[in-house]
């Protein structure tokens, strides 16, 4: 299962997120759930880096599927919108494929 934890402060501003695991929906190389989650997460980070001034630290580990991101300060409007879009897509994946393959939760920090 892919587990995604979205971290937000009390004002619901994103402070980071952690994505880890493999969906195991299908064999490696054919797993559409893993591919969809990966595309959403990586494209969101690329867009934040390309289109905003947000500073973040990211740690990755290919074997475990880990992508751990911490923003150096709560994000501004543009990054907030990009992250809202990522969360919308992740919720849709969880809804369509179930929590056995993709589990999304939120943590107040």
Task: Provide structural commentary.
The chain is α+β, with helices and mostly antiparallel strands and 109 residues long. It is built from two helices and five strands. It has helices at 32-51, 77-97, and strands at 2-8, 14-20, 56-61, 66-71, 102-108. It has a five-stranded mixed β-sheet, covered by helices on one side. The protein is globular, with a radius of gyration of 13 Å. It starts with a strand and ends with a strand. The relative contact order is 0.27.
Write a brief structural summary.
By secondary structure, the chain is an alpha+beta fold.
Element layout with pairings:
Elements: E1 2-8, E2 14-20, H1 32-51, E3 56-61, E4 66-71, H2 77-97, E5 102-108
Parallel strand pairs: 1-5
Antiparallel strand pairs: 1-2, 2-4, 3-4
Helix pairs in contact: 1-2
Average of per-residue pLDDT values = 96
In DSSP terms (H or I, runs of 4 or more residues), the helix count works out at 2
Q: Tell me the β content.
A: 25-35%
Q: What portion of residues is helical?
A: 25-40%
| DSSP E strands, number | 5
Largest sheet: 5 strands, mixed
Q: What is the alpha-carbon Rg in Å? A: 13 Å
As residue ranges, the low-confidence spans are none
* Helix-strand topology string: EEHEEHE
The assigned structural class equals alpha+beta
C-alpha termini separation: 24 Å
What gross morphology would you assign? globular
Physical arrangement of strands within the biggest beta sheet: 3-4-2-1-5
Keywords:
109 residues; alpha+beta; 5-stranded mixed β-sheet; 38% helix; globular
